[in-house]
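Weekly modeling sync, notes
Attendees: S.R. (lead), two postdocs, one rotation student

Agenda item 3: backlog of single-chain predictions. S.R. asked that every request posted to the team notebook include the full sequence so nobody has to chase files. The rotation student volunteered to paste the first one in as an example of the format we agreed on. Action items at the bottom.

Example entry:
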Amino acid sequence: MRRAIEEAGRAALAGDVPVGAVVLGPDGAVLATGHNEREATGDPTAHAEVLALRRAAGAHGQWRLTGCTLVVTLEPCVMCAGALVQSRVDRLVFGAADEKAGAVGSLWDLVRDRRLNHRPEVVRGVLAEECADQLTRFFRDRAAP
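Predicted structure, as returned to the notebook:
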């Protein structure tokens, strides 16, 4: 999670919402990282999770990320939750809950929907306070005159 927090800091420096993600391979080694790049790229799908999953698939040599873990600082939204289900990630670890857009238990619980063919293990709340503080500082600083 510390590596994901570092990635989130890179997003903040670029003026984007500080969310960072890391994909760990089956052996626990870092396959790929990502942070929000929507502002930098003008791409609404450039969320940390999507970018990390794309890069991990490239490094892994296939789109099925079986045995891999996605670590992200903020509870994934519907788009990102769908992407991690589709990529067959075995485990999701996230920090702060997202009461406004979270799709892993806050508003929806897409990743554990029994109608889907793949349901990753979910570990929530890892370094949650630190992840939430990073987001709070970002939005507080943007609102300051």
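Discussion: group reviewed the output briefly. Helices lie at 2-13, 38-41, 48-60, 78-86, 128-143.
Action items: rotation student to repeat for the remaining queue; S.R. to check formatting next week.
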